[in-house]
Amino acid sequence: MTQLGDLPMAPAGCNLDDSGLGAQLDRYRRLGAAAVSVRADDSGLTVTFGPDLDSELLRETVAIERGCCSFFSIGYDASTRRLSIGIDDPSRADALAVLASVLRGSTPASRR
Description:
It is a single chain. It contains 3 helices and 6 strands; from the N terminus they run ββαββαββα. With 112 residues, it is α+β, with helices and mostly antiparallel strands. Strands 3-4-6-5 form a 4-stranded antiparallel sheet, with helices on one face. The protein has a two-stranded antiparallel ribbon with strand order 1-2.
């Protein structure tokens, strides 16, 4: 995703329009507030949520992400409240970095 002002542009292969992208990033920001940790590298992102996770918000966010960005592999382990988002194509690392940044932006610094 390329930064354009405050809103990143959707990466190639993503079918969200500007409004949909903004709403999806807002969902990630809200999820970030419940994150205990956000870990990212070039091939994946792992988010562990605390007990205050809004499970319905997570389900909605994951369902939309699976529908719009098929280049992500997404998994969630409810027993550990751990979300994993991976990529196989290194050219998609920028999209992953945007998600990590948005999630971390809502996560208190002491929990990053």
